[in-house]
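Quarterly update from the structural biology core.
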Amino acid sequence: MSILNQNLLTLDFWKDEVTYAEHTMPTGSIGCAAMNISDEHIGQLIQLAVPLAAVVELIRDGTPTAEHFTVAKESVLQITQMMRTTYPFSLFDFPADGRDIQQIFSAEYTENAIAYIKAAQELGMAAVFDEQYKKGVGIVKLISELAQLGGTLMIFKHGMIEFAHKLHDSKRTPEGYAETFAKHFSDMPTLSLDNPMWMQLTNTTMQYVSAVMPEKEIPQLVKRLHYVSFVGMFRSDLFEGLCVGHAPRLCPICGKWFLTTDARQTKYCGGLAPGDKRGRTCRQIGNLKGREQRELADDHPIKAIYTRRMNTITQYLHRGTLDEQTAAVMKRLAKDKLERAIFDHEYAKGSFEAEMSQDALLNEAHMFIL
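Predicted structure, tokenized:
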């Protein structure tokens, strides 16, 4: 069963590369890609997982029935259909017709799952390693993983985007990223249950394995990490990337995060520029319009809106009605919106001015600081 054999929450690290679902890419790519999943998609995933959360509670109590697994199957089918078209989950081979899910939730599998849950109530963790419950363990693990998918994605985005913006101003080396990391995450991790950073560490297991990496011909000794939450996996990959000089950056043209892998001040991604009829990349458009941006007059309507808002933020900060953290986030958001407006005339004529209002920026900043 491909969805059970491929671990949704496993990464292999080797040098400056990470392998996920048999696809190898620069370390940090998985975490960076997760930052681009829209809030709309995340909201849909959260709603689809509501029945799964109820089943998870029944599993913990040891009381699920075959009917409960039927309800779970419908949710899993809908969620995996969304994952098929959502990067980076689309790296997995989810059959379009959902036949793998149908087989996983067959009577044979669900009966084994119920037997496993009962055994776990009596034996504890020992039941997990009992081969006779292998099918049941797989179903329970899958339900638990997908039940928290949307919620952990939202936590990840809100927790990491503010930090990623700060990396824009870092020296683009492992040492520069480490300095920014230390300033942003100023509190040292402690061994307490109420420390979210520490909890991400406890939710991880690690082993070293000899594996033939994709596109490699000989075995490599790799560090394989298994996670119990998607937020732990994405955050780990992003931080491992920082250790080797890889960091996310927001493209001002398409508004998506992309991964930089060297010390060059790469400003634009290599993806297709939205709305460009000639099929040019954001990098090509950015290089062509760089001069226009540099020569933009101070009294240009777009620049005037930006300057006025920056002055207002500074005034609120001096009056004490804004704290320094919120003001810094608002200024970064305003700068990103200015750059996008310069390259996207439709955006400039449309929602740019409304998004640059004091209230709109403040609300958006609060979302990232949560």
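The mean pLDDT is 85.
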